[in-house]
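Let's practice the habit of predicting before peeking. Look at the sequence and jot down your guess about where helices and strands might fall. Then scroll down.
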Amino acid sequence: MSKNKISNFVSYCENELGNETWIPLYKNLDSDDKTIDGSQYSCLAPIVGREVYMDSYGWDLSYGSGSPSIILCGDDVSYEEHTSEFLPLVFVRDFIGRKEKYNEILQELVLYLGLYNDTKNSKYIIDDDNGKEIEVIRYSKKEIVIRTSFLKAFMAAKQMNLLLFFESSFHFNEEFDNELIIKKNNIRYDKFSNDSYVKGYKNFTRVVGKKLIDCQKLTEKSASPFSLEEEYEDFIIEGDEHDSKYHSCNPSILADYFGGNPDAPHYLTQIFFSKDVMQRYYNASTEYEVSDSMIYKVGYWQLKIDNNSKDHVCVFLGDLGKSIPNSEQKYWKCFNIGAENKEMSNTYFERSMLGKWSNPESPDLIFKGAFKRFQSEWFERFGWYLFLPLTNSDLHCFNTLHCLTKNEQSEFDSQVLSLVKITIDSINVKGVKAVMPCDESGSIKLFSAFLKSKGINFDAASFLGGLQGVRSTGVAHRRGSKYEKTINRLNIDDSDLVFAFDKILEQMIELLNSLTKILE
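Done guessing? Here is the structure:
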């Protein structure tokens, strides 16, 4: 049994160590039953002299050594950043019992790779160019491992080789093997046996050695853990989904207004997508922000889009390649539809092609713009808000309010709920009563009375009451006959919820326009 354990350990060191996805920088190999004790360690080693240190016995850098120090030589005093030509990747912080000992990763490695120490989850992480979290280092008291591609990038940058040290003692009662020294091109280890120092066992065999991993020649590519070769997706530039012509969105191979690539499609070729593509961004308001003609991934990228068209989203071919990473391009490609019989909105044409200021066309964008302006102007004029600002926890209701992307009941319900929170639930009852004393207790009745007192000819009671009814009878509770009566009251057709919600937004815009008369 012990011989099998020794053989397996040697086989691992020869064939697997250094070739895994995760390379051990430090590892405690002690077993609970005390039949095995040992450890693994690591360091960076100079390229020059590899024949010498690979020919020598044992570890060239012991666990805990290599820290900065003052060097004394007679009367000469000097400071050395590392007291060895071998650079430890893990430092041992030992306070001789005053504080708990712990391992610390070489900060130069952490800083070079731009890693964040997620102490809560015991790992170092980094985000890729699309914000996807990548674990680079995992650590615990017994083990520290690093993702191989990242370590190799650091090795290339430093132009230093990697030495992986290993040592393990196996305790047993059988007869021990003869001593053995193995030297190969990239590994050297010694195996020897003696009387065991662990109670209950007669003998032990110890395997001590090191394995060399050569660094790559220093280039921009080898010194980066990320691929520097950009990939670009192809999108439909002509025809429909069945008979279509595709072209890459790589900006460097597209035609431009300066004579570049004259035979290729133009950078400003219009590419069309179903409106479903927007769901990803509406459903993650803390990660993405959608505004009029723009999507932002906070801290990473922004993409210009035409979201003013009723039936589709339009993006310029070159912007797809220039503005978003390949992983995001793949997502958009899933929603790519044919260009036949489609065109960008007049708003986007005037903004992008003519450089003119142009008002939005889509009801959701019109409403959100008008609501923001109204809130600001009302507060500036009167010193209080007619609609109370949303709390941080409810702000997503406004940020993600949008025209429906498809005729889907669940999306209709969620957007109605958001619109009610923004408007009806936010009516400033206290503020209204301060300027117009009234016995009305319901916010909608009070609001309606307030409008009438200001000479506003808008039937707020019917519209807002109907909208509140849709929320109460259909969104917040089980549907029944009351819901059917309510949607009929607002002329909502279940078979065309996209149109129905657009109409609701348009009525809300009409209400805001009526309210601005008070400001005038």
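How did you do? The longest helix spans residues 497-519.
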